[in-house]
Design goal:
Layout lengths: L2 H12 L3 E3 L5 E2 L5 E2 L1 E3 L8 H18 L5 E5 L4 H11 L3 E4 L12 E2 L7 E9 L3 H12 L3 E10 L3 H10 L3 E6 H10 L5 H12 L7
Parallel strand pairs: 5-6, 5-8, 8-9, 9-10
Antiparallel strand pairs: 1-4, 2-3, 6-7
Helix pairs in contact: 1-6, 2-3
Length: about 210
Amino acid sequence: MDKLKKAFAAKLLNIKAIKLQPNNPFTWASGWKSPFYCDNRKTLSFPDLRNYVKLELTHAILDKFPQVEAIAGVATGAIPQGALVADELHLPFVYVRSKPKDHGMQNLIEGELTPGTKVVVVEDLISTGGSSLKAVEAIRANGNEVIGMVASYTYGFPVAIKAFEDADVELVTLTDYEHVVAEALETGYILESDVALLNEWRKDPAHWNQ
């Protein structure tokens, strides 16, 4: 197990940013039933953890994408993390809307992003990857090179893995499904018998039934 991913998984579980309810599934905004819920925005309310996320995302960028020239956050969840990281790196920051504004300049990208700039996208959560990769498309359409993406957490859904491969985007995350489930099992949050159910859900979350 990766030490960082294990440690961050424990922190997310500790503040209940991640909740596992195999026997009482959540309903996502998409309508999917899920035994797993993640809200990384909760980290913003804990100063020490907020700083931890900022520094670890920064370290990941410097390690994997040292040629970075600008940071882009994906609205709305990753705007604060992206801004914090850009500040730490002393780089320009923009954020990408899910759709253009319906008034004014009708911007999709908010902020000043010079074409030709090498950009790292910051995301808080990767589920199917759809909204994250729409942001990548918008940045590329602006004439920029997306050299990678960093995120706090990924479910690692097969559909997302394929989407990132097809889009030729390297994704680096601070933790992931495997490490969260392993930590939850180790600490007694879930039972061994729950793991098979969780794994079955992750294979095809859109059609999963408890």
